[in-house]
């Protein structure tokens, strides 16, 4: 329950720094019997992987995940699943110049203050490199949710700088390097990113994640509401500065008569709430949006200080994403999957009925 | 660790329904020796209390808190603190008409689906009435943070419907019924609320919470970042649909060169980040904003269904807040205090240095 | 998750000191729909209550429990259950003489060292008085386990000083003030206790708790094995110095051929293991034994020190149990019930099957 | 917080099966700045390693631990520490004959019942092989406790079958393959074990663990008392059936006047309590004893059933320890270290004083 674990029944614990030996995680609490392979996890890891388009960092990271335990004869056994990704293309020397500098907008200063010193190679633990393991763990949750309950999780880039997707076509997401659901914006995005690269600058983005077919009833009020737990998991992603559900910050200027979603015998007629009422899933799509800040790793020179408190100039060379929001799409999907999975197991555990037939004790054979 | 507990070292567990016998909470993990009295807690409870202005519900709730344990000779003993508020003015009959109805925008439907039935009196556990105990618990945290570290927490109404505070004067907050920090907007707010009441409608709001003098170093990456934990605690407040730090959703359209806060030998020159870098407090003010939806308890008639799935019309009479955002101000302060307190204790526990003198074991006398 | 909470899905959080205003607890995670009343809880509270026989303390404590929340129309709603017992007969003056003394064998010294000062009235939080709330919370778990799974929990005094029960008759337990399952020992116990009282001394005891009809499969290896979690909950009872399962410490001198329980098509032929294999319940009776030390509150004079480190003599007058093991019987039952309940919910949550039909989402109506 | 994690601030999460690819763990919450290397961990791993004497299994397991993260320039960084041990000498075929059998005294039956199927190779996750990672994690805690507080942890074999150590010489422990502290018993132990091997049988044992120089004040009543948490961690070790502190089960037949440890201006005059009063460390040695059952992996034929419920005979060939208690010594030390460490950090977090000077925020430089 220290800071590198998330979840209560379905828990994910991670380790690993940008330029250490390896990244890894332990997924605990996955129900037994789920067919899962390294190939299943690799699909999402490849979606997150840098170097796949001209719009993201040109670092090559193979991100090849190895499952070390918890799977037997192709299925989860109900025991903890260990996974590891060895770090390959590290180029530590790229980073030696920032050893004594506090890059503005980075965690260099706060890590040094908190821990007394830091692994300065590529940001160490504060690097978004750790999110690779979130994606691997999330892929386990995604597969279970899909197979057992039909839940699907669709992440996409809903805005990049000033360019906003106006239509959402889930199929389109997988057909472009921006994870953009609106094909009519691709040209503008391409032009914007080329221009940005010339400037040596970066830009923010909004990512939207939609989960469909989510069962009614997930969420544990009053503190572990589904939306509160999702806010925690989504806000824990690097660079995220805001999380919102349904109409989000637009509710500030809405009337009650406008916001409330009408219930009819045929179902809800709108989804301003984003699929959560009173902290519990309503059976409608869960719709979450996150705001990602522009990365501070840019070649535009900036003023800063050294770790001895003296003025200095910083230019982050390295190979960085001009918009970290793009590659955040599979990460946000993973975090939503992990939290939905955890809430699903918690709900099942607590809410077996008292009246009616004895709730089954799972896995118990008649001979038992 | 079920859903009614928040925090890891400084934990708050609550109980109580809108129309049950009492509300209560247990605050566990408060350091010993803190002078605390019921009067200390009552100050914030009175700020949250309904019926204090024409802009909030006219229900009278005395919200008189009683401390049942954990204090001896006026000081905390380090053991768990039990507190209770007995419910007074309940008028259960006001609610009997909604027994079989699912009010749109409320948790009636989701509670029935999750638990199989619900305490329909005034929303039961889903009522914002439970937040009274959050305020009492938060007052303990606030006092400790203030006394030991000088941390102060200022919440205010930054927007109500279309009206936005343009200046922030912390003193002004306590001088008007809106918790508005901009005196020039009070007249407009008054007019807006009168008009809203005539319409029988409600409106959303944005509340901002600022914590000053927060020590550098709070936050436990990668999952329990300070901002992620704050997102959890703030999103767990009734009616909140969005949480953001610093520039929040504005970062979507910012450039890296614009967003990053410059460090100089004299300190930071701006605070776009809202006081958190890499999930760890930077020593700057923590600035969080939350979006609160307009309450669905309005007299504008709405379409809905009964619990047997048939069409029905609903008009929520009762005595409700036309803008729940107003009274959310002390609640948001409380949740920020609880989370900062928890992170402070976690940081202290984990980060005692290895080199240098032996870290003191607190409370141990030389004779021990 | 601070020290006054136990359990993960079914959690119990307690507060209250020996001579404070009240004791209380919050039971969180109880499934909805369980019929429960104050009278249900009072049965076990009365079994624990002092002053009911000549063998226990003559303090009168009414221990009348009030349920403050979480029950609606006689059934649990799935929300947190608040309970309180107001302290009545306190006689604080009895204890003023120990304010500055560290009674040997008590927690006076360690509480002062840990927290810097202590509530010295009757032991404050370290008094076994707090166990009243464990009994109330345990009664909720007991009722659920019995009603839904047929689990019954039988605690009894298996040894007091040199006198050991040689037969176990569950019916007999409820017919004598010793909770002794062997009627042939009652006379000897009575004589022993009269003699002890004359001496002004106290004596240790062993309590055994047996749970029958426990479903196979409870326990979450490798750390939260069923026996490890039970060891935690039973060792947390005041005065307990040892916990053992099945043959317990006798295994030290057993051979493997002797200890292993043979499985036959008709079931197990013995229960040396005490119902747990590999940390998971085997479907046999769970058999736990605990060793309780003799209370240090005796009138035999003892040497000690004051809180300023000077020599002193101590005689504990007050009204104390000469054998705390007797009243520990319902407490031990309660702790076993709480832990079995928690493990039951955890097992259900994690182990819903993947193959076969979709596991039901509890509480969800077809119309959902 | 699922079952493969232990601890709250200093947490250890493990994975790995007997015959899987690798074992691993994540240690989270270790304070920054601790010098630690693979060689530090290997010392205890080698003490636990099988095949080192004629008295333990002849399986060869290199148990070579690799640190994958959390260490930079030889010191802990405060981030999570990933570690892995790849499995070498596996010989899966040795175990194919038990695929469909439920070995008596093993977890075969309960794992199948709980999870629906199991990794039958060498016991899978239920094998004591997983304890290797506990030893590695415990070595981190041990080093911190020793270096910062001078705490030392000494485990030894206090009894094997009928042979009991009568003297305790900490130096002697490291000089014989039995971890026996009484040199006069070595010959008898050797003879006993030779005889046992001829019989093809196994025997139980008692292991004692003593922690010296433990600071006063560790333990979080009422549920997370130091002894309750230690009972949890020690009972979670494979084959343990009993845990006791100080005089343990002997207290059952003790008088209060005999048991209570007298306090004098010079300190305590005895340690019947085993170093814990009211669930809080007293500054005396912590003395814990555990009872380990004889392994069921013996060549004496036994009756059992197959997983289809039919009668069968079982003879466990493989290469097994005739007394698992011997190799349990370093494991028990590790678990005590992990729990002491966790309680130390929790105590530090919660109990910083309120009066007096502002408690330091660790790691913060004056310039911060």
UniProtKB/TrEMBL annotation, chains A, B, C, D:
<keyword id="KW-0288">FMN</keyword>
<dbReference type="Pfam" id="PF01264">
    <property type="entry name" value="Chorismate_synt"/>
</dbReference>
<comment type="function">
    <text>This reaction introduces a second double bond into the aromatic ring system.</text>
</comment>
<feature type="binding site">
    <location>
        <begin position="238"/>
        <end position="239"/>
    </location>
    <ligand>
        <name>FMN</name>
    </ligand>
</feature>
<comment type="similarity">
    <text>Belongs to the chorismate synthase family.</text>
</comment>
<comment type="pathway">
    <text>Metabolic intermediate biosynthesis; chorismate biosynthesis; chorismate from D-erythrose 4-phosphate and phosphoenolpyruvate: step 7/7.</text>
</comment>
<feature type="binding site">
    <location>
        <begin position="125"/>
        <end position="127"/>
    </location>
    <ligand>
        <name>FMN</name>
    </ligand>
</feature>
<keyword id="KW-0456">Lyase</keyword>
<feature type="region of interest" description="Disordered">
    <location>
        <begin position="349"/>
        <end position="368"/>
    </location>
</feature>
<dbReference type="InterPro" id="IPR035904">
    <property type="entry name" value="Chorismate_synth_AroC_sf"/>
</dbReference>
<feature type="compositionally biased region" description="Pro residues">
    <location>
        <begin position="357"/>
        <end position="368"/>
    </location>
</feature>
<keyword id="KW-0057">Aromatic amino acid biosynthesis</keyword>
<dbReference type="GO" id="GO:0004107">
    <property type="term" value="F:chorismate synthase activity"/>
</dbReference>
<keyword id="KW-0285">Flavoprotein</keyword>
<feature type="binding site">
    <location>
        <position position="278"/>
    </location>
    <ligand>
        <name>FMN</name>
    </ligand>
</feature>
<comment type="subunit">
    <text>Homotetramer.</text>
</comment>
<feature type="binding site">
    <location>
        <position position="319"/>
    </location>
    <ligand>
        <name>FMN</name>
    </ligand>
</feature>
<feature type="binding site">
    <location>
        <begin position="293"/>
        <end position="297"/>
    </location>
    <ligand>
        <name>FMN</name>
    </ligand>
</feature>
<protein>
    <recommendedName>
        <fullName>Chorismate synthase</fullName>
        <ecNumber>4.2.3.5</ecNumber>
    </recommendedName>
</protein>
<dbReference type="InterPro" id="IPR020541">
    <property type="entry name" value="Chorismate_synthase_CS"/>
</dbReference>
<keyword id="KW-0521">NADP</keyword>
<feature type="binding site">
    <location>
        <position position="48"/>
    </location>
    <ligand>
        <name>NADP(+)</name>
    </ligand>
</feature>
<keyword id="KW-0028">Amino-acid biosynthesis</keyword>
<dbReference type="InterPro" id="IPR000453">
    <property type="entry name" value="Chorismate_synth"/>
</dbReference>
<keyword id="KW-0274">FAD</keyword>
<feature type="binding site">
    <location>
        <position position="54"/>
    </location>
    <ligand>
        <name>NADP(+)</name>
    </ligand>
</feature>
């Amino acid at each position: 329950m220290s800071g590198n674990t998330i979840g209560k029944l379905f828990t994910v614990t991670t380790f690993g720094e940008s330029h250490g030996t390896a990244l890894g995680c332990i997924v605990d609490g996955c129900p037994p019997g789920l067919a899962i392979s390294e190939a299943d996890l690799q699909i999402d890891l490849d979606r997150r992987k840098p170097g796949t388009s001209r719009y993201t960092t040109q670092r090559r990271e193979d991100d090849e995940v190895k499952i070390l335990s918890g799977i037997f004869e192709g299925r989860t056994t109900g025991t903890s699943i260990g996974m590891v990704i060895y770090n390959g293309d590290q180029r530590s020397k790229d980073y030696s110049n920032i050893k004594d500098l506090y890059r503005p907008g980075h965690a260099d200063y706060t890590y040094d203050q908190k821990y007394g010193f830091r692994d300065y190679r590529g940001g160490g633990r504060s690097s978004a490199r750790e999110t690779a393991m979130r994606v691997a763990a999330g892929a386990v949750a995604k597969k279970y949710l899909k197979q057992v309950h039909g839940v699907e999780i669709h992440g996409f880039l809903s805005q990049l700088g000033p360019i906003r997707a106006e239509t959402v076509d889930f199929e389109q997401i997988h057909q472009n390097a921006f994870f953009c659901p609106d094909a009519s914006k691709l040209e503008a995005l391409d032009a914007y990113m080329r221009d940005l690269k010339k400037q040596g600058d970066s830009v923010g983005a909004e990512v939207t994640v939609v989960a469909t077919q989510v069962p009614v009833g997930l969420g544990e009020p009053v503190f572990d509401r589904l939306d509160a737990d999702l806010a925690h998991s989504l806000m824990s992603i690097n660079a995220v500065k805001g999380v919102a559900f349904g109409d989000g910050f637009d509710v500030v200027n809405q009337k009650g008569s406008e916001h409330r979603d009408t219930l009819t015998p045929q179902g809800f007629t709108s989804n301003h709430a984003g699929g959560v009422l009173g902290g519990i899933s309503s059976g409608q799509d869960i719709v979450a949006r996150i705001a990602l800040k522009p990365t501070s790793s840019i070649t535009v020179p900036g003023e800063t200080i050294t770790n001895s408190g003296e003025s200095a100039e910083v230019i982050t060379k390295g190979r960085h994403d001009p918009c970290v929001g793009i590659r955040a799409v599979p990460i946000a999907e993973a975090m939503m999957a992990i939290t939905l999975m955890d809430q699903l197991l918690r709900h099942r555990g607590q809410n077996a009925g008292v009246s009616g037939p004895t709730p089954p004790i799972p896995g118990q054979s008649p001979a038992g």
